[in-house]
UniProtKB/TrEMBL annotation:
Pathway the protein contributes to: Carbohydrate degradation; glycolysis; D-glyceraldehyde 3-phosphate and glycerone phosphate from D-glucose: step 2/4
Enzyme class: isomerase
Catalyzed reaction equations: alpha-D-glucose 6-phosphate = beta-D-fructose 6-phosphate
Keyword Isomerase: yes
Protein name: Glucose-6-phosphate isomerase
Sequence similarity: Belongs to the GPI family.
One example GO MF annotation: carbohydrate derivative binding
Phylogenetic classification of the source organism: Eukaryota, Viridiplantae, Streptophyta, Embryophyta, Tracheophyta
SUPFAM superfamilies hit by this protein: SIS domain
PROSITE patterns: 25A_SYNTH_3 (PS50152), P_GLUCOSE_ISOMERASE_2 (PS00174), P_GLUCOSE_ISOMERASE_3 (PS51463)
E.C. designation(s): 5.3.1.9
A Gene Ontology biological process term: gluconeogenesis
Record keywords, A-Z: Gluconeogenesis, Glycolysis, Isomerase
HAMAP family per UniProt: G6P_isomerase (MF_00473)
Length: 619
């Protein structure tokens, strides 16, 4: 029916969107009047200074709103080696090292920051004890309890954590062993997992699957993490007849995220079309009594696992959100938890040099002037860690990217994260990093073990494939530094459940500490709501457009309308551009809509529906 799609083979050109970066170096990094951060625990208000008052004067002097002067980076190899050794952090049990020597912070800077760190670390202690660290939403922040339930502020929560973990392990075992079977699978057991979720309900599981799933997992996992119909179709098509042996896990903390709901509805339709009973293969991970939880309960889904109010989406990898998908792939989740617990332990110390999360926060502060003036490029030199940057992107940017600080000052804070993997990116954008605009620092992730033991060979005398990867990382680190580009290097012995758990915990804590240093709430995401609300308004407008077109198309003869006329009749003349886009989109999708005219000159377009819907007319 649609003829508009033919007319408009490409969308109209728009002016390039200018990126108005509101963060300038002139924004004071310290606000001397905004140095206290009140936590409330239950009815009791626990005063926790994110920054102690008594140090505020010194700090204000140290940072008077101007970018701090930076001396040139140390270039003398002997001095650099001393700096490397002096600052090298090692976590023996995790096989993890952190090298911050290629970030140019000075001893004076560290001394100036010390009181702020002490205050931040103290605030983290309160947070772990159950303070309301997310004041806007009145929530505790408890992801640290997930890997050590004894830390939970009361017995009830402790029990909930332990019971959930036991239930996850039992359920995963029963699925893998075939004790729980899909009703009509030729395989006689579940062979695939289809995970439906978005943001924090997808990124952790995706990262962990890529990092840790064995080559032949007991269940293979795939993801629907968008409301793109073609993407959803692709996943379902790839499953083919294996849909009958697919366990569908729908993950949504709120239980009402539109993309996830749409994914669920699409998957349920695919099940219906294939004559399968979705409920027998569906699992929900969500907060108790959410829309999703109620749907799953009423429809009698195979299983439900809780998501807790006090665990944020982006810090939910160690909750059922991350653990169930991982366990189903045969990943040792207790080891992941153990790795995270070890890192939690290490990042509680108040000794800055011994605290790798605090060291990261220190580096971020130094490198970005505490206002996100530089981006963080995350470069793991290991294919299996490909999705680390995407995972960290949400963890860091959704946590730190805030318009207002905790005292209501407009600060437009944040820390931009992007990256992919080395050495691949050396053939993409490292050219610009080395020589172009100097607006970043790098975090290299190095993995010492190239391959499982016994599999290596020398592709030229004395040199393995992994030696090249190693050389590429070291070479890039040196070449960037030689051109005054700073970097951090985190090294792990191997990519194991333990080290991955450790890395997740390291960055969670670094974000928490850094947020306290810059006095923002890391645990809410008010900015996301604006886009969601606007999307809802677009869909509401679309319904009005359809009603107006329907009315005109039911006339005898049919009355084709210009865009102006549609906008007038919708009583939204100011929305004419959006109406144009709505019509173009519907026309491109066989929506019984006929548009005549030229796409390049929207004023020439006249539009009507191919059929009149009388029911809608009188609805
Ligand atoms: O798990 P939910 O509630 O579906 O939310 C998904 C994601 O949407 C957000 O709320 C906003 O993007 C994220 O914080 C969250 O991880």
């Amino acid at each position: 029916m649609a003829s508009f799609a033919g007319l408009c083979s490409s969308s109209p050109s728009l002016h390039p969107k200018h990126n108005h970066n509101q963060i300038t170096k002139l924004i004071p990094a310290f606000h001397k009047d905004s140095l206290s951060f009140a936590f409330q625990s239950g009815s009791k208000s626990v005063a926790v200074q994110s920054v102690a008052r008594e140090v505020s004067t010194d700090l204000t002097k140290a940072n008077d709103g101007l970018p701090k002067p930076k001396r040139g980076l140390e270039k003398d190899p002997h001095a650099l080696w001393r700096r490397y050794v002096d600052w090298l952090y090692q976590h023996k049990e995790l096989g993890l090292y952190l090298d911050v020597s290629r970030i140019g912070f000075t001893d004076e800077f560290v001394a100036e920051m010390e009181p702020r760190f002490q205050a931040a670390l103290k605030a983290m202690e309160e947070l772990e004890k159950g303070a309301i660290a997310n004041p806007d939403e009145g929530r505790m922040v408890g992801h640290y309890w997930l890997r050590n339930s004894k830390l939970a502020p009361n017995k009830f929560l402790q029990q909930q954590i332990e019971n959930t973990l036991d239930a996850i392990c039992k359920f995963a075992d029963e699925i893998i062993s075939g004790k729980i079977k899909p009703p009509s699978s030729p395989a006689g057991r579940f062979t695939q997992v289809l995970s439906v979720g978005i943001g924090g309900s997808a990124l952790g599981p995706q990262f962990v699957a890529e990092a840790l799933a064995p080559d032949n997992p007991p269940l293979k996992i795939r993801f629907i993490d968008n409301t793109d119909p073609a993407g959803i179709d692709h996943q379902i098509a790839q499953l083919g007849s294996e849909l009958a042996s697919t366990l569908v896990i729908v993950i949504s903390k709120s239980g009402g995220t539109p993309e996830t709901r749409n994914g669920l509805l699409e998957v349920q339709k695919a099940f219906r079309d294939a004559g399968l009973d979705f409920a027998k293969q569906g699992v929900a991970i969500t907060q108790e009594n959410s829309l999703l939880d109620n749907t799953a309960r009423i429809e009698g889904w195979l299983a439900r696992f809780p998501m807790f109010d006090w665990v944020g989406g982006r810090t939910s990898e160690m909750s059922a959100v991350g653990l169930l998908p991982a366990a189903l792939q045969g990943i040792n989740i207790r080891e992941m938890l153990a790795g995270a617990a070890l890192m939690d332990e290490a990042t509680r110390t108040r000794v800055l040099k011994d605290n790798p999360a605090a060291l990261l926060a220190l580096c971020w502060y130094w490198a970005t002037d505490g206002v996100g003036s530089k981006d963080m490029v995350v470069l793991p030199y290991k294919d299996s860690l490909l999705l680390l940057s995407r995972y960290l992107q949400q963890l860091v940017m959704e946590s730190l990217g805030k318009e207002f600080d905790l005292d209501g000052n407009r600060v437009n804070q944040g820390l931009t994260v992007y990256g992919n993997k080395g050495s691949t990116d050396q053939h993409a954008y490292i050219q610009q990093l080395r020589e172009g605009v100097h607006n970043f620092f790098v975090t290299f992730i190095e993995v010492l073990r190239d391959r499982p033991p016994g599999h290596d060979w020398e592709l030229e005398p004395g040199v393995t494939c992994g030696d090249y990867l190693f050389g590429m990382l070291q070479g890039t680190r040196s070449a960037l530094y030689a051109n005054d580009r700073e970097s951090i290097t985190a090294t792990v012995q191997e990519v194991t459940p333990r080290s991955v758990g450790g890395l997740v915990a390291l960055y969670e804590r670094a974000v928490g500490i850094y947020a306290l240093l810059i006095n923002i709430n890391a645990y809410h995401q008010p900015g996301v709501e604006a886009g969601k609300k606007a999307a809802g308004e677009v869909l509401a407008l679309q319904k009005r457009v359809l009603a107006v077109l329907n009315e005109a198309s039911c006339k005898e003869p049919v009355e084709p309308l210009t865009l102006e006329e549609v906008a007038e009749r919708c009583h939204t003349p100011e929305e004419i551009e959006m109406i144009y886009k709505i019509i173009a989109h519907m026309a491109a999708n066989d929506r019984a809509l006929i548009a005549e005219g030229s796409c390049g000159s929207p004023r020439s377009i006249k539009v009507f529906l191919g059929e009149c819907n009388v029911d809608q007319l009188y609805a």
